[in-house]
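Hello K.,

You asked for the raw outputs rather than the summary table, so here they are, unedited. I folded two proteins back to back in the same session to keep the settings identical. This is the first:
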Amino acid sequence: MVLSSSLLIIKQNITKNSCTTKKHKMVNQKYFKPNKAITLPSHAFLLFVILSTNLITLFLTNTFYSSCSSSTESVTVEPEVTSRIQIQNLSLDVPEDDLPSEFVTYAYGQKLPFGYNWRFDTDTMYSPIGQACTWYKKDLKRYMSYDVNGSCPNDEALAQKLLLKGCEPLPRRRCHPAAAPDYEEPVPYPDCQWATPPDSSVVWKAYHCKNYTCLINRRSQKGSDDCKDCFWLNGLERYRWLPRRKPIELEFTQDEVLALKPKGTIRIGLDIGGGSGTFAVRMSERNVTIVTTSMNFNAPFNNFIASRGMISMFLTVSQRLPFFDNTLDIVHSMHVLSNWIPPVLLQFMLFDIYRVLRPGGLFWLDRFFCRLEQWDETYKPMLESIGFEKLKWVQGKKLDQKVEEMYLSAVLAKPLKNSW
């Protein structure tokens, strides 16, 4: 076919040249000597060159494609291999990997039943998961291995471990969580605020203590457990944020802070790392609703907060605050936001607090601590750069460490006008 096409082209060229010699005489004189026309030997030579070129091209083309076809795997890029997963009449194509099948079913996009949704601006729904979930496949496999519609593993410690590693939010599961078999009705409100809840309200497997009596008694034991005296409601916990006979300069009372704003304008807020929920209880006595975030570090803090009639949220400090912009009246945090958090991540969190506070809202930074040399270099400029106004600002030395450390207690306000 290649040869036939070449011969046809040559024939057309010869005919064209013989018919248009006179027409292009002036042009040809530029490139050919006068009185020297193109002869038949010249046409034969041109035919020989074209035929040779086509034969060489045909040979190289056949050789190239035959060599490629014999080694396709080594020179071509294969499309992503997929496998079809069947779970309870649900199926989807997903990249083949060693991820747990339940995780894949949850995480990969599912088509919306009615197609494209203009509110979502897509026809597919994706479930949010923490970026780091797939970095810890061994832990993730344990967490997502269960019988659908059956019982979830009793794995509270594993779930918290994944959260702290950045697998937040955790993927949802299609199983029933462990619960105390002899669960009792909670103490009625408001008595529950200062009552120790029944032991049957907690699944104790994840903790060293197996009852609340043990947790209350550990205040006098050696160790580094967080908030060791938080569960002793008849001790120091009962007097937090209340006036003292001998006021401590670094400790502000709740009434003192609430008085910074017009009466009744502090209504809802957040306590970050709120221990056993006492800040929320005291604020509820002042008609302020507080949501408390907490982790369960060797104690059932979230269960305890809920048993006291307060709202608890199982969130790490790394999680974006689940509130809309400019909505909260107050955000409080004691001890939690300090120099143990990488400075860049702490700055992100401070801006997130600024985001959720309404204009005029208060950020109560309760006993922030850091090393003395870090203060002027890192943390003071950081706090002052966010955009808060200083309403109260007290610094002091931290005396319970061998190295020089300092405390800061401050009440900061998001500007009421032109907050940004």
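The second followed immediately with the same parameters:
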Amino acid sequence: MSAPTELPADPESMKKLEKEFSMESKSEEKKLQSAFKDMHKQEKSEAKASKSVEKAEKAVKKLEKLELETVNSLHAITHKHDVAVADLHNAQADLHTQQTQLEKLKQDLSTARKHVDQVTRDKKDHDRERHNRISQLHSSPPTQIGGPSAGTSGASTGASQERTLL
């Protein structure tokens, strides 16, 4: 946000500056909503991956049990044992892949949360700056030529606009 060195003297410039502040605020609000939406997507992905890992762990345990039973009857069913071992290796590889994906999603979620925190802090800081600038605009005496009535009408219009912005 750029800060002009002088406060505008005429009501049109004040209105334009207030409108610019309002547009900046709306833009930052959209960024914040987008960051929350991205974080929500990351949370959903992480939850889905976590469920998938649990399912894969159950599959591994089931296949390990099957392997043990197959080893006990190895003499009669050697071929079935080989198939179970192969399934176990595939399930373990799948588990490893899914665990890796889960860790990456957790890192991405952490990054998204940090981003949301930063955007929230930035928005609060900018909102505070805008509010202070608007207060300065309304508290400084107008420098218009035309007597006391010219400054009064601009100040009352600005006060109603300030309520609209806040």
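DSSP finds three helices and no strands in the chain.

Happy to rerun anything if the numbers look odd on your end.

Regards,
P.
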